[in-house]
């Protein structure tokens, strides 16, 4: 739908953007297009191709930098056991810093599951920062008190 609006606005800009002549000559009546204006071809760029799927790439590693302003729970995408199950690599979608900074990570371990909750907030040093809205894939490593084993990993933000 956005592409349709873009093409429509571009068409209107091209259609309404023509200039008119205010000087009359014996060959052409006042306001008629001149030879150079009438002979010009207007090309409209094609709409950009739709993305083929979700963005991919290598996550940016980050470490908790709290305390931040207004920390909130953030859902994560994946948790991969590392270091023989004694740690988890957590991957989530975030935004640019200083507006989206990893504040801290809470890890609650029981015999049956490990609950990991990420908290993000705004950097205290930049309370009035304005950031672009762009998704960034981030990762952080959390240590476990005991190896993961058969325990289930749960997102504490969901």
From TrEMBL:
Residues 19-37 have a biased composition (Polar residues). Residues 1-24 form the signal peptide. PROSITE patterns: PROKAR_LIPOPROTEIN. Keywords: Signal. Residues 19-81 are annotated as: Disordered. Residues 41-68 have a biased composition (Low complexity). This is DUF3558 domain-containing protein.
């Amino acid at each position: 739908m956005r592409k349709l609006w873009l093409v429509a606005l571009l068409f209107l800009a091209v259609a309404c953007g023509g200039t008119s002549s205010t000087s009359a000559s014996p060959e052409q009546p006042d306001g008629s297009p001149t030879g150079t204006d009438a002979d010009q071809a207007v090309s409209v760029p094609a709409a950009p191709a739709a993305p083929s799927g979700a963005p991919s790439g290598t996550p940016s590693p980050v470490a908790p930098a709290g305390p931040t302003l207004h920390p909130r729970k953030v859902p994560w995408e994946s948790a991969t056991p590392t270091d023989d199950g004694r740690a988890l690599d957590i991957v989530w979608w975030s935004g640019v810093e200083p507006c989206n900074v990893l504040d801290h990570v809470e890890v609650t371990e029981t015999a049956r599951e490990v609950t990991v909750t990420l908290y993000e907030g705004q950097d205290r040093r930049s309370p009035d920062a304005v950031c672009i809205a762009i998704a960034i894939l981030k990762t952080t490593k959390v240590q476990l008190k005991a190896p993961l084993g058969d325990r289930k990993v749960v997102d504490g933000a969901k």
